[in-house]
Design brief:
Elements: H1 28-43, H2 45-48, H3 50-61, H4 65-93, H5 95-112, H6 119-135, H7 139-149, H8 154-182, H9 185-206, H10 233-244, H11 248-263, H12 265-278, H13 283-308, H14 313-330, H15 341-353, H16 358-369, H17 373-402, H18 406-425
Helix pairs in contact: 1-7, 1-8, 1-9, 3-4, 3-12, 4-5, 4-6, 4-7, 4-10, 4-17, 5-6, 5-9, 7-8, 7-17, 8-9, 8-13, 8-16, 11-12, 11-16, 11-17, 11-18, 12-13, 12-17, 13-15, 13-16, 14-15, 14-16, 14-18, 16-17
Length: 438
């Protein structure tokens, strides 16, 4: 006989609990921006050296300042002309590969200068190799990272990444000037090479090309799949240029940014140290003043990014250029054997304005040219560097001919006034436009 079996009703299963992973407290985009910031700082050493090379190369090899300025102008021109192709190459091969190769080329060019004996080698090693490498990770690098990883806070991030170059200048200028003064220019060139190589592991291990690589949406935006690689990088860069060149805003932006380059990289970064040395100021003291410009450049550029998110960009540009022009007109009266309060006021004032023009210029490119804005900005940056190259060469020639840099300071001040007027003429777009990629 079977015993009674007590029937028990199993307890009801607990209701399923929906699980959703908590989003990270800090979005991955900020880590990518931090790696980009460190990368630009580490690569900034190559931009700090040209102004320190003019006097030692002139003394050792008896090359004219115009010859040395020509090598620097080739560097600056290639820096700009490579940028739009670099933006397309980043679309085709990824940011990590392009930047890692660029840093390696910079290191190679800087190392080769140590054994040079002729002026054409300076042009080839420092002008061509370092120019191509630096152009491949120029401000187009910052613009590409910002466009891919951020929707909100783009102006602020642009300002921070732009300020990274000034931060690198702050780090390297005092060290490089001390090396040039006490050990010679060759150890300084080796330091530049090692600094570029030291950044490569950060880029390769920590940087990611697109938010979709880590299954994230860009900061402040919606998730989107990573676009397929775009073939024909060079063709796309040229096509975008031809399309953009049919618009008035492109030429106004290119013209204002050419004057920006002429009045910063081409003039002050290249010729301020030798100009101050002409007036009896020690090279280390002049380089220290450039480093102080870098300190206030960080503040000014980040503030400019904040302003760009909130104020009308054309008027910001006009104010920046007007103030820069006024300061340059006063500089010839301030140069002296020792550092005095009016010179310090110029350094602070000019430093706040050094590259404050970059965030509103990138914002205007984005407003007018949409998805192709990084490539368009690459071409605008090319005009910046061509302007810098012209003045880097012309400044050296002016010093050889007039025995003074004063005519170049005054001319640059007048050009900045023209840039302020050009900025006000840029029209407002009705809506962002994407230029055809093919």
């Amino acid at each position: 006989m079977l015993g009674d079996v007590t029937q028990t009703t199993p307890p009801p299963a607990p209701a399923p609990v929906s699980y959703r992973p908590r989003p990270p407290r800090i979005h991955r985009a900020w880590f990518v921006a931090a790696v980009t910031f460190v990368t630009i700082i580490g690569a900034a050493a190559f931009a700090s050296l040209p102004g320190l090379l003019i006097e030692p190369l002139h003394s050792e090899f008896r090359w004219t300042r115009g010859t040395i300025g020509f090598a620097v102008s080739v560097n600056l021109a290639l820096y700009g002309l490579t940028a739009p192709f670099a933006a397309s190459l980043m679309d085709r091969f990824g940011i990590r590969r392009v930047v890692a190769v660029a840093l390696s080329v910079i290191a190679l060019g800087s190392l080769l200068t140590v054994g040079m004996t002729a002026a054409w080698q300076l042009v080839l090693y420092w002008g061509v190799l370092v120019g191509l490498g630096s152009g491949s990770m120029a401000l187009a690098f910052a613009a590409t990272v910002t466009n891919r990883w951020f929707v909100a806070r783009r102006g602020l991030v642009t300002g921070i990444l732009t300020a990274a170059g000034a931060s690198g200048q702050l780090v390297f200028l005092p060290l490089l000037s001390w090396l040039v003064e006490h050990q010679g220019w060759r150890p300084a060139a080796v330091t530049v090479a090692l600094s570029a190589l030291a950044v490569v592991p950060f880029v390769w291990l920590l940087l990611r090309d697109h938010p979709a690589d880590v299954r994230l949406a860009p900061y402040g935006g919606e998730y989107a799949e990573k676009p397929a690689p775009v073939p024909g990088a060079a063709r796309r860069a040229v096509t975008v240029l031809f399309k953009a060149a049919r618009t008035g805003p492109f030429w106004l932006l290119a013209g204002t940014f050419a004057i920006c380059g002429a009045s910063t990289n081409g003039l002050v970064k290249t010729h301020f140290v030798p100009a101050a040395h002409d007036h009896g100021m020690p090279v280390t003291a002049a380089a220290g003043l450039l480093a102080v410009i870098g300190v206030f450049d960080v503040v000014g550029t980040i503030a400019s990014g904040w302003f760009t998110d909130r104020f009308e960009t054309r008027r910001l540009l006009a104010v920046y250029y007007a103030l820069r022009g006024i300061s340059l007109l006063f500089l010839p009266m301030l140069l002296a054997p020792a550092v005095h309060p009016p010179m310090l006021f110029f350094i602070v004032f000019y430093g706040l304005d050094w590259v404050a023009t970059v965030p509103p210029t990138i914002a205007l490119c984005r407003e007018h040219f949409g998805e192709d804005s990084a490539i368009v900005f690459g071409w605008v940056l090319a005009s910046h560097q061509v302007g810098a190259a012209v003045v880097a060469f012309a400044g050296g020639v002016a010093r050889d001919v007039f025995r003074s840099y004063d005519p170049v300071w005054y001319a640059s001040g007048a050009l900045c006034a023209a840039a302020a007027l050009m900025a006000l003429v840029i029209r407002r777009p009705s809506a962002p436009r994407a230029l055809p990629a093919t």
